[in-house]
């Protein structure tokens, strides 16, 4: 995902008050993202270190009406 896409999605994956539904720009960026790659970060320290809640991030594809993530 591009830096711009990450920034567009960050309000929807940051606690305590995530934005729902995600912004159109976020969903468009997510539609071009490698969702299998996102899966690889599910249990990583990387997402939390960026202020991203992994559970909220894994829920984004469904909220954007995109195909579900592959089994992580």
TrEMBL record:
<dbReference type="Pfam" id="PF14368">
    <property type="entry name" value="LTP_2"/>
</dbReference>
<dbReference type="InterPro" id="IPR036312">
    <property type="entry name" value="Bifun_inhib/LTP/seed_sf"/>
</dbReference>
<dbReference type="GO" id="GO:0005504">
    <property type="term" value="F:fatty acid binding"/>
</dbReference>
<protein>
    <recommendedName>
        <fullName>Bifunctional inhibitor/plant lipid transfer protein/seed storage helical domain-containing protein</fullName>
    </recommendedName>
</protein>
<dbReference type="InterPro" id="IPR044741">
    <property type="entry name" value="NsLTP-like"/>
</dbReference>
<dbReference type="InterPro" id="IPR016140">
    <property type="entry name" value="Bifunc_inhib/LTP/seed_store"/>
</dbReference>
<dbReference type="InterPro" id="IPR039265">
    <property type="entry name" value="DIR1-like"/>
</dbReference>
<feature type="domain" description="Bifunctional inhibitor/plant lipid transfer protein/seed storage helical">
    <location>
        <begin position="9"/>
        <end position="72"/>
    </location>
</feature>
<dbReference type="GO" id="GO:0009627">
    <property type="term" value="P:systemic acquired resistance"/>
</dbReference>
């Amino acid at each position: 995902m591009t830096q711009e896409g990450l920034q567009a999605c960050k309000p929807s994956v940051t606690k305590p008050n995530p934005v729902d539904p995600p912004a159109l720009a976020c969903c468009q960026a997510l539609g071009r993202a490698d969702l299998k790659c996102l899966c690889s970060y599910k249990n990583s320290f990387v997402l939390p270190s960026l202020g991203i809640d992994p559970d909220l991030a894994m829920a984004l594809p469904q909220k954007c009406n995109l195909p579900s993530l592959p089994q992580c």
